[in-house]
Amino acid sequence: MGLFSSPAKVYKPAAEVDLGPDSDEHYISPNVRAPRVAGLLVKLLAWVLEMPVVGWIVLSVLKRDNLVYKLVSDAEIPEPPLFTSIHTWQEIAEQNVRLTKPDLSPAERVQEAVVCLPAHLPEPAAALADPAPAGFRRWTVRDFHRAYSAGQTTPVMVARRFLAAVKECSGPDLNMALFISCDADDVMRQAEDSTRRYQQGAPLSAMDGVLVAVKDELDCLPYPTTGGTRWLGAARRCEADAACVAQLRACGAVMAGKANMHELGAGTSGINPHHGSTRNPYCLARVSGGSSGGSAAAVCAGLCPVALGADGGGSVRMPAALCGVVGFKPTAGRLSNAGLLPLNWTVGMPGILAATVEDALIAYAAVVDQGKPGPLQPQLNLPLLTCTRSMPNIRLAKYAKWFDDSSEDIRSLCGKALQMLRAQYGWETVDVTVPEIEEMRLAHYVTMGSECTASLAKYLDNMSKSEVGWDVRIGLSAYRSFSSRDYLNAQRLRCRQMYFHDRIFETADAIVAPMTGVTAYPLQEDALGTGELDYINGAALVRYSIAGNFLGLPAITMPVGYDRGGLPVGLQFIGRPWSEATLLHLAYAMQEACAAREHRRKPKVHFDLLPREDYYP
């Protein structure tokens, strides 16, 4: 036990933990009491933490107060460490799926996905004439493809509208900071190539000419990959597209530029002092979330129906929920990490942000990695969304104490969403206990921080601290304080959580929970130049995201309504390994149920790249 430690927790063997609804396992809500810190106070704290002796003392006190010592560092844990979250192939009986051949090209997989989609419903003429909130509908991949194929518009015309919208978003009136880099000449070159293919009657796929934003954590030529910094792009040369980007290019997609992100992915707000803080299209005075905030906000604002993000601790799903779009993180290993900044080796991977569940499916089919057949590259099932309504006997596991640890509006909306699924589909909610939620969050934090500093050491050890944002400097100081014992104990907790979740999935098809504990919170002016430390809101945002990354499980979030302030609320499904098809079915069912109950609300900032007065599906 360390000098600043409290009595350590002694864990009983995982097999002895009761996972039933009446378990006596204690639910620990995050022990966060620190006030929000920004501006000059952030600078002062960064300086203090970087002092050799004083910094160590302050960090020790902070870790004690946040229970890192008690629940992780000094804890007695009977299980051995589990160092990765990669899952071997498990034969699971998924309902209503289409099995794809392993040797298909990305464009061929996209075609397979399109076949799985319901018929494209025509939009009411009233909605075309009056794009009011009651008639608001996001343009989808199929909308763009149909408009291009019918000659109603061209990728070049859409690209011009896109570039004008980006310019408007970046101007002083909106100042949304959606993109770090956007090369207009490159966008137009791709759009011209796509337009020629349509004119020749030979588009590569339904994604040909469709704009896709790429989080600046993934390599995408001709841009440097900055990771949201002002130094990494020069220190690490980008020589080729990331695997996911290359697959989208093979489908004809137009890479729209590098979307903004929280610096080094080390935060949940999307506040970036170097490239501007991404603002939420539903309310410009609110955060977009992070770290894939630029990707989420770009989709929300109508600039693209699909964007790529990266998810190491909810970084795709959290901003998707705050911005009212779909966020999808497949099973670890389902997508290739090639060309992704190696910030978090065992918890991070690419992810998808999309306007609709259908668009998420199309993008997923394009970027899935089928290059290494074998036990770590299982067969690819695509969900037949035409048959979602005929899926019986779906069981959703719900841990009530965890589910309810959110704001009143979120708790109410997510609860009503489950009631709708039961009423419309007959799907059952099963009460369970997911033990040691806070312990898992802290273990994930230790893991993510340790891996981040190890990955970036060759850069950080040879550069000036002034190159790094103040809030991230504080984070890096905390990351450097973790010991090998901290890391090993975190992996022992990973082993326990893998066991718990495997047991739960023996009786349930997915775990259901809110995506975040709060909706988008205010973006404070004093944080724009320094970043901020808002541990209360930060802990609420990550509360439901950790299992997807720490355990490598697939997870998807979709909007289910709006709080009393008009801000989006997201619900999340977490699945067993390799159950992406089932999760997409669940998300599609939820999307359709919500559409029948309540119209989507149009964001305050939204661009119609397909003008409604000109386009009739």
Please give the structural blueprint:
Blueprint: E1 37-38, H1 40-49, H2 54-65, H3 68-73, E2 97-99, H4 106-115, H5 125-129, H6 141-149, H7 155-170, E3 179-181, H8 184-199, E4 211-215, H9 232-235, H10 243-250, E5 254-259, E6 279-280, E7 283-287, H11 293-300, E8 306-311, H12 317-323, E9 326-329, E10 349-354, H13 357-367, E11 381-383, E12 395-398, H14 400-403, H15 408-425, E13 428-431, H16 437-460, H17 470-480, H18 484-504, E14 510-514, E15 532-533, H19 535-542, H20 546-550, E16 555-562, E17 568-575, H21 580-597
Parallel strand pairs: 4-5, 4-8, 12-13, 12-14
Antiparallel strand pairs: 1-15, 2-11, 3-5, 6-7, 8-10, 9-10, 9-16, 14-17, 16-17
Domain Amidase: 179-584
Protein name: Amidase domain-containing protein
Pfam family, one: Amidase
Overall description:
By secondary structure, this protein is α+β, with helices and mostly antiparallel strands. The protein contains 21 helices and 17 strands. It has helices spanning 40-49, 54-65, 68-73, 106-115, 125-129, 141-149, 155-170, 184-199, 232-235, 243-250, 293-300, 317-323, 357-367, 400-403, 408-425, 437-460, 470-480, 484-504, 535-542, 546-550, 580-597, and strands spanning 37-38, 97-99, 179-181, 211-215, 254-259, 279-280, 283-287, 306-311, 326-329, 349-354, 381-383, 395-398, 428-431, 510-514, 532-533, 555-562, 568-575. It has an eleven-stranded mixed sheet, with helices on both faces. A two-stranded antiparallel sheet has the order 1-15. Strands 2-11 form a two-stranded antiparallel sheet. A hairpin with a 5-residue loop joins strand 16 (555-562) and strand 17 (568-575). Helix 1 packs parallel to helix 17 (470-480), helix 13 (357-367) runs antiparallel to helix 21 (580-597) and helix 15 (408-425) packs across helix 21. The longest helix is centred in the last third of the chain and has 24 residues, at 437-460. 57% of the residues are buried. It comes from Urochloa decumbens. This is Amidase domain-containing protein.
